[in-house]
Specification:
Elements (H helix, E strand, L loop, with lengths): L4 H13 L4 H12 L3 H13 L3 E6 L2 E6 L3 H14 L8 H9 L5 H21 L1
Antiparallel strand pairs: 1-2
Helix pairs in contact: 1-2, 1-3, 2-3
């Protein structure tokens, strides 16, 4: 799955606002970028069709909200990007992650360690 810049901005907006119609999104995101209401409506529809937004009809408009949280989407995007390059048993993803983590500070490493430990605990409970 690939996301354009406007799609990313709309998702970020909906993660913070929880729910909005196209006019609200246009006011917050589209006007600043010079996008028309029509462009925002098309973007919301694309995100809905990609399964990233849910919508409910309210009067003549749809109310949109994010269907996936930020962390889940990032995990999906990373998996999609790397799937074509990594073979079973290969450690390229781990090596790439280790290389990209060189810029993390101590607090970020501590957070990462806690998240890894949470995943270990979750995996052991599922086994």
């Amino acid at each position: 799955m690939q996301l354009g810049d406007l799609e990313k901005l709309v998702l970020q907006f909906l993660w913070s606002e929880k729910e909005a119609d196209a006019k609200h999104v246009h006011t917050a995101v589209g006007i600043v970028r010079g996008n028309s209401l029509n462009t925002i409506q098309s973007t919301l529809d694309r995100l809905f069709k990609k399964g990233l937004l849910s919508r409910t009809k309210q009067g003549h408009a749809h109310l949109y909200c994010a269907k996936v949280d930020r962390e889940s989407l990032i995990a999906t995007l990373i998996t999609d990007v790397t799937a074509d390059f990594i073979e079973d048993g290969e450690h390229s993803l781990i090596a790439a992650f280790a290389s990209s983590s060189a810029n993390l500070d101590d607090a970020q490493f501590e957070t990462l360690e806690k998240l890894i430990e949470q995943q270990r605990q979750l995996r052991s409970r599922q086994s």
